[in-house]
Design brief:
This protein is an alpha+beta fold. It has three helices and four strands; from the N terminus they run βαββααβ.
Length: about 100
């Protein structure tokens, strides 16, 4: 199993409506892409100053399923339409899990 963790901070210029649209689009990704074993996404709770503002934790059966997710048209559109225009910074990592 591959666990994919991604987080992002918005630009100061992003509007509340744009942020809400990104969160909604992010939550819909597993409905559009095959091979996602588990998917959780949402906004940071604001408990620790300096945290990213939104994130995803997704699980895939193997590396091929993860790569297929990254290359899926719905994921590419999500990045192009929501992440690229609104992203001040982001980070990601993948790890093997049982």
């Amino acid at each position: 199993m591959i666990t994919h963790v991604w987080s992002m901070t918005f630009t100061d210029a992003s509007t509340p409506e744009q942020r809400e649209a990104l969160v909604a689009a992010m939550a819909d990704l597993p409905n559009q892409i095959d091979g996602v074993a588990s998917f959780r996404s949402g906004q940071d709770l604001g408990l620790n100053p300096g945290n990213a503002e939104v994130g995803i934790v997704a699980e895939f059966a193997d590396e091929q399923a993860w790569r297929s997710y990254l290359e899926a048209p719905a994921h590419v559109a999500f990045v192009d339409d929501h992440v690229t225009p609104l992203c001040a910074s982001w980070g990601a990592f993948q790890l093997h899990t049982a």
